[in-house]
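re the bet — no i am not wrong, look at it urself. input seq straight from the record:
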Amino acid sequence: MSVREQYVVGVIEEMDKQETAYGLRVDIYLSLLKSSLGWNSTYVKAVAWRDKAEQAAKYRKPQTLMIVFDKFANAEKKYRGTEIKKVRATHVSRLTVRELQTFLTDENGQYNPFNW
């Protein structure tokens, strides 16, 4: 399904790098912390291609990433026994602690670490 750009924030659980006929492909499995679409699944699979894959390959477990995407679907395989969403990454970046804290504020602007 195609959407306007949305984001997911999560912690890297696993990363799989593959060289394909179209260039480098990196599959990143994230433990989901926050999503702009309000998903309540535990994990998300982000697929990055070419230049985004080279950028994503630099990150390591357990860094916190923000992935901006424009397309998503249900993943074809279960991950650790649960259904997951699969997104196509248009931008991958690491979050600092201060940036992560902005995602932990509620609608009133109050810091709430349990507001996932």
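see?? The helical segments are 50-56, 97-102. told u. also The chain has a mean pLDDT of 87. so pay up
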